[in-house]
Amino acid sequence: MPLAPTHGHGSSGLDYRRDVDGLRALAIIPVVLYHAGVPGFGGGFVGVDVFFVISGFLMASLISSEIAKGEFSLVRFYERRIRRIFPALFTVLATSSIAAWFLLMPAEFVYFARSLKAAALFTSNIQFEKESGYFDIGAQMKPLLHTWSLAVEEQFYILFPLLLLLINRFARRRARLIVTGLLAVSLVACTWMLFRSQAEAFYLLQFRAWELLLGALLALNAIPVPQQSALRAGLGLGGILLVAIAIFGFSDQTLFPGPAALLPCLGAALIIHGRDETGPAGRFLQSRPLVFVGLISYSLYLWHWPIIVFSREVAGRQLSLLQGSLIVIASLVLATISWRFVEQPFRGRASFVKRIPMFASAAGVLIASVGLGDYVAHHRGVPDRLPADARTVYASTYDQSRFSLPPCFADSDKSGPSVADIYAGKLCPLGFEGSAKPSFVVWGDSHSGAMAPAIDAAAKLVGITGLFAGHSSCPPLPGVQLTPRGDTGLCGDFNGAVHDLIAAQHIPLVFLVAYWPKYVHDAELPNEGPYFDLSVPPPLDDRSASVVETLDRLVAELTKQGTRVVLVSDVPEMGRYMPEAVAKAITRGTSTDVAPPLDYIEKRQALSHAILTRLAARYGAALIDPLPSLCSHGRCDAVRNGLPLYKDADHLTATFAATLSPLYVPVLSEARR
Questions:
Q1: Residue 592's closest CA among 640, 538, 630?
Q2: Taking the mean position of all CA atoms in its chain, how far away is CA 637?
Q3: N or C: which end of the chain has fewer CB within 10 A?
Q4: Taking a C-beta distance cutoff of 8 angstroms, is the pair 271, 240 a contact?
């Protein structure tokens, strides 16, 4: 993120460089336009990398200069950091907290609370790495997501001054060599981690430090500053070109950071190192508009993202180009006000706030932020904020049966029944519990857990016993190669054990239940989450080859061994979290009819339904389709009797699922005979 200028007007003893402020503008403008959804700026996120290089250069220049003069003080250094970072940051945190209180649903508010605490402690990069990737829709709806880069920088600023002090004390002549070595190690580590965990490579300091260290090397004069004006001009133009290539050539699909980040970072380094004052690049970067945007860049960075996120919350959808453009303008205005009346009064030795009160105030707002974050998280998002009817609707979020939770359900964290438990038949029972021998097995992923209450109720009515075998993100497809959405190793072991259990115990009936559209298209609905955009067509690419092959083989094997197979088609996907969407509609007085239209859902389910229908006909299997129970007359229900039918975007609530038991009574009655 863009730090407030540490050079400037004599306050730090460094020469003020207008071109560096211009470079800040060259970085922040693409970031804001990228976040606002303005076309053409697909790589605008690289502006953060440019800021890292700038920050490393300025900090190393300041610290090394003061160390050389014998004037460096850690207390004074951190005082400057607090004066420049805290006022605007905590103003944004306070304002965002107020907006979150009124606009966010409890689960969203819990995520916000965690990020609020992490932002105050400058650990939000670690928090967001644990939660999700930068480009997914969950991340796009987090108002404080952008504070991750501030956390990276502040963590760097805790360690880097100590490093320079140690180098000055014990290895002054090897300073450049040591910094170069650390840069190389960090870059190699980042590249290595990129192919193992892109989120870690993106968020964590050890994999981003090389970008700041690149700027630090420039400050340590690792490369002689060019003297010829033509060479300086060439470096400036070359740097702008490299940054521009990244901004306009990269996209969300670019494997990043790693080697790709070298492009904007080297571009920023060339501009800083060239010190072009009279060439075309220098004149461009020193122009008054760019310098002004550079001066307000810290406030602009802080304010623009929460405005975008909360605007999406109010609109309930992705922002249009016009809305995004208006937000850019509003962010510029607010950033200017913030820079003038929030940032400036705390800066410099002439500030009206002295050191001791300033440290005390900083500690106070930090403790308050952490305390609020803990309170909200502990109280599960404070649902009492909502009107009573909205609160009742939102409670459907937690309406799930034991079949969706450990120990009955196997989660991705390896909780739930183990492979040994499955082989021993130690699975949660369904239906009538008086029989020792199971008559059926329900086998599938999390959608099997959501549908299990219906089969459980039907089995109790019929008077037979079954077993439940469900695993998160694992369809009942032994040996199929899953995408990163599922753990191939865990799924293989789990499914193999269930398959062997059915054969070993000669179980006569098996229900295969899964999120079939997701697997045959290798994609969930677009924007699935807090909002949903019907103008974006559902993913319909046919990627079902491995699913069809594996499912065909499985149904053939089960049928051959005498097990009757029941293929359960999936429920309609809603495209948004229903309890949140309905509760928001109630709170805002808008329509609660928020389900996608039937034709949209039928297009999405056409391929998976055709595959299941074809296999059922080929092997004499039964096919159960719950869609008609949820949809009729051209529409699907999101709400019945005032309550959502789903606990999220594609899992039924346990209460509603139980009402679907009549669908399963006929086939279970046959099994009893």
A1: 640
A2: 29
A3: C
A4: yes
Selection from 48, 46, 54, 51 nearest residue 7 by Cα: 54
Q: Mark out the alpha helices in 483-565 (DSSP H runs).
A: 488-504, 516-521, 545-560
Query: Structure tokens of 614?
Result: 């074809």
Find how far residue 111's CA is from the centre of its chain. Answer: 11
CA dist 23 and 28 (Å) reads 9
270-309 pLDDT tens trace:
999 999 988 999 999 999 999 999 999 999 999 999 999 9
CA 334 from centroid of its chain's CA atoms: 26
- Written as six digits, the tokens of 370 are 């952490």
Is the distance from CB of 265 to CB of 211 less than 8 angstroms? yes
Q: Are 293 and 78 in contact (CB under 8 A)?
A: no
Q: Structure tokens of 453? A: 């209450």
Phi-psi label, residue 515: left if phi above 0, alpha if psi -120 to 50, beta otherwise: beta
* DSSP letters spanning 632-657: ETTEE-SEETTEESBSSSS-B-HHHH
Compute the half-sphere exposure of residue 371: CA atoms within 13 Å on the CB side of its CA. 6
Burial class (CB in 10 A: 0-12, 13-18, 19+), 203: buried
- For residue 155 the two structure tokens come to 């963590």
Cα–Cα nearest to 83, from 349, 287, 401, 288: 349
Cα–Cα distance, 474 to 544 (Å, whole number): 15
**What's the token pair of residue 434?**
């008086």
The token pair at 350 is 């002439």
Those residues whose C-beta lies under 8 Å from the C-beta of residue 403, and which sit 6 or more positions away, are 409, 428, 430, 442, 448, 449, 450, 452, 453, 456, 468, 470
Please work out, in degrees rounded to the nearest 5, the angle formed at the alpha carbon of residue 422 by the alpha carbons of 555 and 472. Answer: 70
Give per-residue pLDDT as tens, 415-443: 889 899 999 989 999 998 776 789 999 99
Write out the E strands in 400-543: 409-410, 429-431, 440-444, 465-471, 509-513
Place of tokens 């300073």: 175
Q: In the structure encoding, which two tokens stand for residue 207, read together?
A: 């994999």
33-54 pLDDT tens trace: 999 999 999 999 999 999 999 9
* Residue whose entry in the numeric block shows the structure tokens 């863009």: 2
Residue 22: both structure tokens together: 């211009």
Instruction: Assess contact for 80 and 5: CB atoms under 8 A.
Output: no
Q: What is the pTM of this model?
A: 0.84
Distance between CA atoms of residues 159 and 148, nearest Å: 17
